[in-house]
Amino acid sequence: MRNTYLLILVFMFLSSFTFAQEEEKEPKHLITAALGYTFIPSGAPSGSHEEEGAFVPSIGLDYFYRLSSKWEIGIMSDLELGEYVIIHKDLNRENAFLVAAIGSYSLTKHLNVFAGGGMEFEKHHNLGVIRLGTEYAFKFNKGWVLAPGLFFDLKEGTDTWSLSIAFGKEF
Question: I need a surface site. Which of 9, 73, 78, 79 has the fewest CB within 10 A?
Fold first, then answer.
């Protein structure tokens, strides 16, 4: 009888330890949709001949996979919804689509910095891209995330700045 009680206590202890680990387990996946604006300092609105800078709305879809509590890898994709011209390169840009492989590091529980590279595809001319950025994630119940972000894209002499707000789900 004494062995039975001991066995029950050991089982309860191990069960509680297993459940406690499951509750603390961080989600591995994050998918977000983003709305933002990209500023092209060396750009001009389509049809203009003066380099005055151009603002273009953008939408994005991102996926990240958590490797550890500090590191994530992922894919960021953005679609610029507009036309502009890069005067000094004589480039017309229309609805450019950017895809970049990203490595992300968590400085704090909410603040991430990231870097990566990829391509910006556009019917007139494709550009290589290096992306640097940061996001501050507000985490809500059931894995929902709201994350404002700031990005800097180096694009073969047509560098851009972007501000966005991403809505997503961790699972």
Answer: 9
Q: Render pLDDT for 2-60 as a digit per residue (tens, 0 to 9).
A: 565 555 655 555 555 444 444 557 899 999 999 999 999 999 998 887 878 999 999 99
| Domain assignment present for 75 | yes
pLDDT in tens, 58-77: 999 999 999 999 999 999 99
Taking phi over 0 as left and psi of -120 to 50 as alpha, with beta for the rest, 69 belongs to: alpha
Report CA torsion sign: 140, 143, 148, 150.
positive
What is the number of helices (H) and of strands (E) in the chain? 1, 12
Which residues form the domain of 102? 25-170
